[in-house]
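ARCHIVE RECORD
Type: protein–small molecule complex
Small molecule: calcium ion
Source of inputs: curated submission
Record status: active
Notes field left blank by submitter.
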Amino acid sequence: MEDEPKLATAVKQGLEANDHTVSIAFTGEDGFFLATTQPFDLLIFDIMLPGRDGIEIMGSLRRLGKRTPILLLTSRDSLEDRVHGLDSGADDYLTKPFALSELQAHVRALGRRGSVESESLLRLEDLEIDRIRHTATRAGRPLDLTAREFELLEYLMLQGDRVVSREMLTREVWKESARHTPIDNVIDVQIARLRRKLDDPHPRKMLRTVRGVGFVLRPE
Ligand code: CA
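STRUCTURE (tokenized, with ligand):
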């Protein structure tokens, strides 16, 4: 996202020479649209853009749960602006003017960070789980889950909006080939426990039972 065509084109060409695929947006609105409708490994923002500025767009993206790494390009180099940018959700910044090789070094560093982050963190509104550390938080507070409850929650999150049947849970979470009544009871007990920890303290419920079908994480 950069409104100066010369700079935008130079960045695009420089990154394409390193085998990256680059889309340019010249306004904040276009950039926001692209960032919310297409998958990117990295977003590079100018702060001063016509319409919505880079800091504001970044805040909106973070509130939507977008965790794509963001590199800010700024001609303002005061400490205050940099701190404000990082506080608003940027991962790194680069002060103009910069050398292409410097930009490429930042892009490489953020690319590495991005791939690890996208695999390890899952987020649904205020619910977040870290698949490497095996921790879950809702509204910033840790959920004290057993290993099985964590696996169950992780599996439900990975299915997104799809309703998960008891057969799927038996196979994928409990790793049993055949579904039988005792397992159904175990699943129901575990779901009830997970629901207590996940939803009871919050007015907005997430874990739903779809009668006769199964379970889904779908915030009310
Ligand atoms: Ca600008």
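CURATOR ANNOTATION: The chain has a mean pLDDT of 87.
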